[in-house]
Design a protein that fits this description.
Blueprint: H1 2-16, H2 23-30, H3 36-41, H4 44-64, H5 69-82, H6 84-90, H7 101-119, H8 128-147, H9 152-155, H10 160-172
Helix pairs in contact: 1-2, 1-6, 4-5, 4-6, 4-7, 5-6, 5-8, 5-10, 7-8, 8-10
């Protein structure tokens, strides 16, 4: 039942945005009693907190198998494209309980994976923290532009992952590549 409500919520968010969520409507969509969503999530904020935590866990797993900074960025962009509803909620702390222990643990796992790509560049930059912010900004900005269809025309029929690889190379040069 919990998964059915989460799936219905993700569908609503992907098509209409998080503002369109209503626990009563989700119960109807999921084919469960009107009290079921409140039983599992307490309220709308609890549901959005669960979605954000699930999103950060998915992101951490997605990034874990990327071999270098550039590929972590490609995986980040592909995660956003594959999970647009999670992505919308994850970076809107005004929507969820930012102090939720499960959410905090999931965010830390994702952050660790994001930082791991920058660690590979530690010897090539004087400020790894600034490099991390630059890398995240590039991937997050590209993913956001992709999801909001602002890149439809510039990308045409090109693979977003390939375009991102080019941008990462322009930004970070050869240091974004694994050692040969």
């Amino acid at each position: 039942m919990r998964q059915a409500v989460l799936a219905a919520a993700l569908d609503v968010i992907a098509s209409e945005g998080p503002g369109a969520l209503s626990l009563r409507d989700l119960a109807r969509r999921a084919g469960v009693s009107h009290a079921a969503p409140a039983h599992h999530f307490k309220d709308r904020t609890g549901l959005l907190t669960a979605i954000a935590a699930e999103g950060y866990d998915l992101l951490a797993r997605t990034l874990a198998d990327a071999p270098d900074l550039r590929e972590r960025g490609v995986h980040y962009v592909r995660f956003a494209a594959a999970h647009p509803a999670h992505f919308q909620v994850m970076f809107r702390p005004d929507l969820y309980r930012a102090d939720d222990p499960e959410l905090l643990a999931a965010k830390e796992r994702a952050s660790t994976e994001l930082r791991a790509g920058v660690t590979d560049l530690a010897g090539t930059t004087a400020d790894p923290r600034a490099t991390g912010i630059a890398a995240w900004s590039l991937a997050h900005g590209f993913a956001t532009l992709l999801l909001t269809h602002n890149l439809d025309e510039p990308l045409a029929d090109r693979d977003p992952g390939e375009v991102f690889r080019t941008l990462a190379g322009l930004t970070f040069g050869r240091s974004a590549l694994p050692p040969t």
